[in-house]
Task: structure prediction
Amino acid sequence: MGVGARMLTYETRNEGVSVEWKKSVHVPPHLHEDIEIIYITDGTVELGVAHELYHMEKGDFAIVFPNVVHHYQVFDSGKNKGIYLFLDPSLAPTCYDKLLKYSPEYPIIKKEALHPDVVRAIKALVNLEECSSMVIQAYMQMILAHVFDEMKMVDKNTIGGEDLVYKAVEYVGLHFNEGISLEKMAYDLCVSKYVLSRMFAKTFHCNFNKYVNDIRLNHAVTLLESINESITNIGLDAGFESQRTFNRAFKEKFKMTPREYRNKMHAINASNA
Result:
């Protein structure tokens, strides 16, 4: 999910799919391993991919392939909401290799050009309750068939180019669970650590360590919600040196411990069952 705190109006989860119907807000550059689908229900939002900013209005559709750096900006002070779908690419085996290698050159389909089947599939995924992965696969294939038919694809390696923000987000996304440092990252990216530090302050309004910790915490939240691994192992998997460090960072951001968060999510899921 995004780096910032969640601002949900509605959220539901099934195996392989997460649905958020929420207020559209500014989200800084980030990447993830899911396919992300955006369908605007009210107002406007700007989707940023690489050097381009794409304007979206009510009824417009967009898709972001796995591990593509993207961000959101909202300039309109009115009511801005959208459906944000996060889909596991492994549920689309016939398209899996293409999803990993390519990305749409222009990731938006405007309302007037959007096929009704795509809208129906999105609404069906939003309204899903417990169901089999085969049902999710069917709707995903319906959406992706139109995406690959109507959108020109380009190699992911051509996106972003030498843009430092893009390279930095990609680097952290690949190495956040390792012992990375500003100095090591600057060396690997062949840039001064002072330039890198200023870039984080200007783009993300925080320092390098806080940015990395936010990425680690978001990863940990996903694990806490989806697997029964121990708290210690989840913290280590997310890149924290110890459970103590993990607990302190988690409580500072979410105002509760990882265990309290897991128990709260279990209680919510049980009440919705």
